[in-house]
Amino acid sequence: MKAPLILAAIGSVLLSAQAMAATYGAACPSCTGGPTGTVWRQAAADVSYANFAAVNDTIVLCKDSGSGTAIVADYNVDYAPPHPGTTSPDDVSWNYTQGNVGVTCADLGF
Which 8-state DSSP code applies to residue 67? Predict the structure, then answer.
């Protein structure tokens, strides 16, 4: 009788651990082009790799546009390469971009 209860408890812990995704953020002053482009996605993949992110974690990048708007882009981690390994822009997918008028990336905590 104890074995099924213990297995059920372990299973519920594993399921709850899998459901928790992490978010990692970074400023990206060198990002050029649009947030859906290769440069931004490669930067997001590099942030993912540096933080040992897992599949389904979130990467958030911020760039000051120079016109008083902080551009924030949100990405999903689709592939987490092994360490050591290499990254690719295809490791992440773009979710959305938000412009924050009147603030900088530093104001937003990046």
Answer: S
